[in-house]
Amino acid sequence: MSLVLDPAAQDLLFREARTANTFTDEPVTDEQVQAIYDLVKYGPTAFNQSPLRITLVRSPEARERLVQHMAEGNRPKTAAAPLVAILSADNEFHEELPALFPHFPAAKDAFFSERPVREQAALLNASLQAAYFIIGVRAAGLSAGPMTGLDFAAVQKEFLDDDHTPLMVVNIGKPGDDAWFPRSPRLELDQVITTV
User: Fold this and answer.
1) What average pLDDT does the structure give for the chain?
2) What 3-state DSSP class applies to 19?
3) Which of 99, 94, 83, 87 has its CA nearest to residue 52?
4) Are 17 and 134 in contact (CB under 8 A)?
5) How confident is the model over 20-44, as pLDDT tens digits?
6) In angstroms, rounded to a whole number, what is the distance separating the alpha carbons of residues 108 and 125?
């Protein structure tokens, strides 16, 4: 059985998509960011909780502050990317549940009144949304470079608050010269699927 999605779209989103290590200076516009979000906001999360929060790092001053908290190997590409996003999980996502889950507004208190429960749910569901975001960036014809090589505590202190847990930093832009490392291997189906 073949996939319904057009092969060119399959290549754009998965087979040919790569993490860029260099970028052109073509800017990523607010309109592109809006289009990406308008697509990926429909990805499923439990209770429609939608805990992902996105901090766009656009100003040179903010970029300098972020770069100093990145692992050394990630600093040059983060400094050069046209746009950088800090993806975080909102641990107070439950405040939005009456609007996001209107057929059961009591879910806010019935399931998410305790902070540790919210933190676990926010981490899982915001991570799902981060994956949707990466695919959305690719759908816009851009390269998404997700990175976890950073000082999480410092990024949280510098850009977020105690209610937001940083998940990753994503460099976004059009790939530049010599942007790609060689493609790394992938596991085969029989290595990841068990039938019981």
Assistant:
1) 96
2) coil
3) 87
4) no
5) 999 999 999 999 999 999 999 999 9
6) 15
Q: Spell out a b/e string for 74-101, using b for 16 or more CB atoms within 10 Å of the CB, else e.
A: bbebbebbbbbbbbbbbbebbeebeebb
Reading the block at residue 161, the tokens are: 């608050």
Alpha helices in the chain (DSSP H): 7-10, 30-40, 60-67, 75-80, 97-100, 107-112, 115-139, 152-159, 189-192
Cβ atoms 41, 133 nearer than 8 A:
no
DSSP element (H, E) containing 55:
strand 52-57
**Structure-token pair, residue 187:** 């596991």
- Strand 143-147: give its sheet, edge to edge: 52-57, 83-90, 164-173, 143-147
Are 49 and 93 in contact by the 8 Å Cβ rule? The answer is yes
Stated length of the chain: 196
- d(Cα 77, Cα 98) in Å, to the nearest integer? 40
pLDDT tens digits, residue range 61-82? 999 999 999 999 999 999 999 9
Whole-angstrom distance, CA of residue 16 vs CA of residue 141: 11
pLDDT at 1: 62
Comparing CA positions, the residue from 159, 189, 176 lying closest to residue 88 is 159
